[in-house]
Amino acid sequence: MDEETEEKIMGYALRNAINHCGEADVNAVLGGIMSERDGLKPREIIDTVKKIVSEVNSLSGEEQKERAEKIGIELEVESEEEDDSLPEIPNEEGQVITRAAPNPNGPFHLGNSRAYILSYLYAERNDGRFILRFDDTNPSSPEKSPKKKFYKWIEEDLEWLGCKPDLVIKSSDRLDVYYELAYELLEDGNAYVCTCDSPEWKKMRDRKEGCPCRDLEPEENIDRWHMMQDGEYEEGEAVLRIKTDIEHKNPARRDWPAFRILKDHDHPFVSEDYTVWPLYNFASAVDDHELNVTHIFRAKEHSTNTKNQKDLYEYFDWEYPTTIHHGFLSLKGAVLSTSKIRKGIQSGEYAGWDDPRLGTVRALRRRGFQPEAIEKLIRKYSVKGSNAEVSMQEFTSMNRKVVDPVASRYFFVSDPAEIKVDGAGKKGGIELPLHPEKDGTRKLVVGKNFLVEREDLESNRGEVIRLKGLYNIEVPEEGENCKYAGDSIIQDMPKVHWLPDSEEETMDCEVMMPSGEKTEGKVERNVLEEKIGSVLQFERFGFVRVDGKEGLPCFYFAHK
Hints:
Elements: H1 3-19, H2 26-36, H3 42-57, H4 61-70, E1 97-100, H5 110-125, E2 129-134, H6 148-160, E3 167-170, H7 175-187, E4 191-194, H8 198-206, H9 218-229, E5 239-242, E6 257-261, E7 276-278, H10 280-290, E8 295-299, H11 303-316, E9 322-326, E10 329-331, H12 338-347, H13 361-367, H14 371-381, E11 388-390, H15 392-403, E12 409-410, E13 412-413, E14 416-422, E15 428-433, E16 441-446, E17 449-453, H16 454-459, E18 464-467, E19 471-474, E20 481-484, E21 495-496, E22 499-500, E23 506-512, E24 518-524, E25 535-538, E26 542-548, E27 554-559
Parallel strand pairs: 1-2, 2-3, 8-9, 10-11, 12-25, 14-20, 18-21, 23-27
Antiparallel strand pairs: 4-5, 5-6, 6-7, 13-24, 14-17, 15-16, 17-22, 18-19, 19-20, 23-24, 25-26, 26-27
Helix pairs in contact: 1-2, 1-3, 1-4, 2-3, 5-14, 10-11, 14-15
């Protein structure tokens, strides 16, 4: 490959990295150079692109800018901050009351946090109220049944995100309210108790035919309702249905079910005496009305549920809240499905609900992602109706902007190689900055013996390199005996991180990677001063979160 093309690739890589918080993307760089150079084929340059992108990404932000300036790369300067204000929504006048309605059968993830965060932000913007209502009336199976710990986890996650609710309630506390309203519907002839065989009923529904139960008098339906509550029907033998247009073009809109019988349930807060349970559309519609909810944020996949719930509002002569249907938000490479996560935990594939491969809020938090970054992401996509698959690069870029200005810097060596430096004048205690732009230092005691990354040692044989913050050394062609080579900082000189080869200054540790595998290495003991939960930067390695300090210190890798 000609030198001019390589220089162009370097230019694209530096520009892309600087505009994206220090991390260039291979595909973006490849696309840029392909658009400029006719006749090039991706396979001819992809290896060079990957090599140059890797080189650029190994540099600090300051080093990238220095390199760009040296080779004459013009950088686009953003004159204004990106506008992340929320768009206007209908009927914002007056107090806005919103709610989050999670099913506590698992912690929530980045995808469904969209509705919860939007609900909080719009309520906050309009001096309103944000309600947490646990939608916990579906104990139909061990997988779907609510669990006590998830109620607590969801509250913790919302508070960590900065979305503390003004009121917390459980739908399961309101079963008697639902029963009273069901009675009223039966009394008015707007609902009926169906005892038809389920497969047969579906055949009639698909033929747009009402079942015989639909024509019963209200008194007989009320008698059947009492029999349901008294336990005279078994599970699956009776269902309360809401009367709708039996000829509606959408089968899901035809006489939808509102209550069913669940006798063998394991609900953490409801006794076995309750065997008749409302389904989602009934409980949700009633609670939204009684809590005076003005605005509902939900994924567009719930559009049919919205229409079904409006049926109840028409029967009761209630005013339905303003509903905003947004698209689904997913995170590329992260597992979001609650059922898949549960199966993975049961099989041992995942270590728990905060496994680093997952997209749960608890997993992202443990890795070191910050609530400000999650909010920024939600603000960007806000109430848009289209689905969005967020790349990890985009998400980490947002998080990097939050943590980079405050994260203390430390040295971590993942594959230590021992070296000895002869002739160096600096020995004893030296101070290094905790952050390049903030006050504060950490102290390391140095002698002649050091640990460096084995790759740094082997790839710089016969060269002069700089031990960051210390001095320059000449690396031998063979062996580990290096020579002191002065203190002058030379711009193009490779700069490597290091550790004193001393048990008093360094210790073993492990870093949990996003793949679920652990990387072991050595780290300076100064990290023990950091609190659990703090996000740090291991220089030239990436941002990590302090997960544990007892025994073998453990860190969770966030991103570069």
